[in-house]
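Encode chain A's predicted structure.
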Amino acid sequence: MTAKIWSFSGWIKSTDKEELKQKFDNLLKRAGFTVLNEVEHKFEPQGYTALWLLAESHFAIHTFPEQGGTYIELSSCSGFKQKMFLKMLRQDTPIYNYKENESRL
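Encoded structure for chain A:
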């Protein structure tokens, strides 16, 4: 068996904490990921970071309201679930400066 991790990162326009949390929690579950835990932190005066610990790895978001964008990244040992997540995300969310990688041990 070969160890593989699929990852992607990019930027989206929304920085709304509640919208982002609901959107990504829903997308991760619809793509078939198993959410083990979630942790989040709101910075003062602005900014938000959230991490979803997945059975298949992790998903993280970091908002930059002063710049008008949010950095997102997903790492997964399931290429199929990763592709499903991206397909659903792209249906209504433009992703900027997108990078995708497949890493093998």
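The radius of gyration is 13 Å.
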